[in-house]
Amino acid sequence: MASPASSIESVLTYHSLPPVRGFTPDHPPDYAEILRCTHCGLCLNQCPTFRVLGWEPDSPRGRIYLMRAVAEGRLEINPDFREHMEVCLACRACQTACPATVQFGRLVEAARWQVRHTLPMAPAERLLRTMVFGLILPHPTLLSLLSRGLWLYQATGLQRIVRKAGWLNRLPYALRTMENMLPERIPARGMAVGRVVPAVGERRGRVALLAGCIMRTLLAPIQEATIRVLTRQGFEVVIPRGQVCCGALHVHAGERRRAQALARRNLKAFMREEVDAILVNAAGCGVAMKEYGELLGDDPQWAEAARAFSAKVRDVTEFLDTVGLRPLPRRLSGRVVYQDPCHLAHGQGVRAQPRRLLQATGLTMIELPDGDLCCGSAGIYNVIHPEIANALLEEKITQIRRIAPDRVVTANAGCMLQLAMGLQRAGLAIPVQHVVELLDEAGGDSAPSSRALRGFRL
Question: Model pTM?
């Protein structure tokens, strides 16, 4: 294999398109932030793509080197530059490892935005982006219709027929993977918004909850569990009408303009409510919402409101740990491992809080080796970069198999679906659950097995 230096230089000398010197003035990667990287290499072993590929341009240090080369006019934004930016999982593990605290996540997202409006795009990709980022995700009605169709696919028995006949093998890998990741029981109805759920017992405050995309449709039972947990803990919960996708997937994919439009719509929806905190139970959404102040920082109309909004955003585990749990009426038993969602541990610095909540249920916590290493989900990464995603997932499942816990617990939708698929592939009948589901079990009369993510099939 070529040396790291020659690997990078091969990219610097590659010219397949007319030169596009430097970044455009429209939100380039922060050059001052780029210069803060000392190239010490402490990020390398924490970078999932570097661990899998062993290729310097696919490490945080290498990607920053490439960004600096573009900023200084030594490299044009070309297909190779795009590939090295897009193969990054944007998990932000490098930020945890970095002694200089370089904000790599924002750098790579800015680089992807530059790629998005600089390089030409194939018609098929343009159509796909329009469908996913422009139509489906921003419109809750379309999301609900899609979810309803998937429910019918299961309820009519068509899914069983398709899988038994082997017809899935005729589909493109991306579609096959998405079908494999469907929950065993898709709810017939999604989460209802535009409602207020009163607190149980003495009221401790009022909070707003993000409905989300996947969370409000395919994983709506987790949202209902979240509401039950919060109301039992004395909080009135409002689910604002008019809220939409948080824009996290858009930002990660370089769709900055569309992400900004979604952020403005959410600000309008949530600003109508007087609440103590704005809560989210999906880690990637939490990072995006906590960074609305940066996303809309150049918008004179919305910048101040965005900063105020972001200051109120809390992950639900972060919030519950801060306010303190009321005593839980039930004690749960069993051994659990907790998988740190990347955007919760590295993006928000929330690590100890979910663990303390799990311990409060009575469960025995077992640490997963490299538990904060990405599982390979990373939004839609497991669909567009399956080889790397599967390598990371296999490493994770190997560790889980060795420990043999009773449950696997995490705090992010993508991680749950990815881990459940990996366990099913490995023939391991271990449920994957969200932290709030266990709090719900310990807090009332819920039936735990009905909400465990079991039975993912290939």
Answer: 0.88
